[in-house]
Amino acid sequence: MTGSVPAAPRSVLLVEDDPGDAFLVQELLAEVDPDLRVVVSESVSEVVKGDLLRRSDCVLLDLNLPGTNGLDGLRRILRAHGTAAVCVLTGLDDEHLGMAAVAAGAQDYLVKGKVDGQVLIRAVRYAVERRRAETSLLRLREEELAAAESVRLERGLLPSPLLAGSAVRARSFYRAGRTRSLIGGDFFDAVLGPTGTVHAIVGDVCGHGPDEAALGALLRVSWRALVLAGVDEPQLLPKLQQVLVSERHDPSLFTTVCTVAIRPGPEGSADALVRLAGHPPPVSLRPEPCPAAPAVGLPLGVSTEATWDALPVSLDAQWALMVYTDGLIEGHGPVAGEPLWEEGLLALLAEERDIDLDELPARLVERAQEFNGGALSDDVAILVLSSDAAPADAPPADPGSGAGEPA
Description:
Phosphatase 2c, domain 1, single chain, 2 domains
């Protein structure tokens, strides 16, 4: 397979103070490529101050210029424009200096008096191509590092609920709204506290950038630590607001949150406390979809005087509860020009009442996207909690092995 010929550069910047040498280089280049534009500058200072580097494909740099010593000129050019393709020009006695220049960042070195037009233009072309390749590799590495950071943040935002030993089961769904993004500002978690109460949270940091995603991960981890440390349930939101205020990068940034504290009761029943901080209410899925809607308090980060009242909710045996972020309901709904909103979500849940809870979150997003005519623009997080004894979540019992355990 033959290699491709490097594309011809359109402009070369020649940094040379000797008029005779400058004329000779221009003539050699013109013989091979008459269309090549050659700009001559007599000093590195003129090059840097005049911003000539960004308008040139390659720099031919004489190392023996007034006001520069050794590789000083090369270093100044690379500091001014780190991706510049530079070929250094040396005298015959300075060949070792040319090799040192390559080690310092030059693409090639040329010895005056030993190059003709073909050698000169080939060196310029390959210098440009090598610099382009190096720049592409650098960008690829930066993208790989950014992807690795996204994976770390994603692990922070998409946890494995800590519910082992409880009578509660969780299913989750997460999708970032940003194009080509794995993560967003929404977060969720569910944890079994030290007293046997199951705590769950769904939150939404306003904004969609990586800073908001990082803050969402921090808030989730902080909330989990507070629960596991045994902080009283009424103090969880005030403590979480303290974390938000101290860690946010913008003083106007706020976060909406829904928390649920579930105390399992006998025969699959449970008692729950629901608190809302500017967030959509959770929905009790059984026997019919019904919102559990306490008074909505201010989002976290708006006022240090804010309080969040709890709504007690009694959950019958085989209960199921869904908490979600507003990205699910803010896309277009079945009524033209109107978002889906909570009413539309309740209608969807009624239509999908027979679907397995494991499949419900993804199915709701699929239906919402059908109404929206495409992907939802905002982040979406959904957490479905249920009694672990719920028949819809358990495989059929084996008649020959007793009652069996739920999945």
